Amino acid sequence: MSAPHPKYASNDGVIEAARAALGDRLIDASEAVGEVRLDVKREALPEAMRILRDELSYQQLMEIAGVDYPERPERFEIVYMLLSLTKNHRLRVHVSTDETLPVPSVTGLWPVAGWLEREVYDMYGVLFDGNPDLRRILTDYGFRGHPQRKDFPLTGFVELRYSEEEKRVVYSPVKLAQDFRTFDFTSPWEGAEYVLPGDEKAKVPEDRGAPTPLKADEVKK
């Protein structure tokens, strides 16, 4: 029997309350797979988040995530996950931007957003206006590019490794460490010309007249 746990509150009335409180700051509101999504104007984000925190009781900012849609004019969506402790309810706030338009920082409302915004900046290159310390936080300071962008090469540009020769951490261009293997698809039952691993143990029986192994009681001590 599973342990009892509190269920999240119903979504009934949440969208209506958000529309009334946010007004023209809200672009769209929807519900899917049991979750409420609020799309907010980028320039109105700080005030919209203040209203959600102070008037609708979503006290905690749990996470900030990024999503990349390269085919869109504003390719990035920044997603804020909010939790109401008093209502036991969660919702998501979405804003969109591109590589150059900054998103207003919400560090004035939740100081923890400082690190979360740095993660999104590091992975996607999204700028946050008002963040007092917008630096990389997951990759190294000398890293080039933003790894979570869809157009970022899978191998990256450089690799970070420890050099035994120089006795320090160095950067070097990414190289494939192993050549592409050549595979032989010839079936071993159709006369392959190579010896498979383990075949060396299956030797041909000895010729006639070969000495018979001694029994245990015949071994000279």
Automatic annotation (TrEMBL):
Keywords: Cell membrane, Membrane, NAD, Oxidoreductase, Quinone, Translocase, Transport, Ubiquinone. It holds the Pfam family Complex1_30kDa. GO terms for molecular function: NADH dehydrogenase (quinone) (non-electrogenic) activity. Belongs to the complex I 30 kDa subunit family. NDH-1 shuttles electrons from NADH, via FMN and iron-sulfur (Fe-S) centers, to quinones in the respiratory chain. The immediate electron acceptor for the enzyme in this species is believed to be ubiquinone. Couples the redox reaction to proton translocation (for every two electrons transferred, four hydrogen ions are translocated across the cytoplasmic membrane), and thus conserves the redox energy in a proton gradient. NCBIfam families: NuoC_fam, PRK06074.1-5. This is NADH-quinone oxidoreductase subunit C. The gene is nuoC.
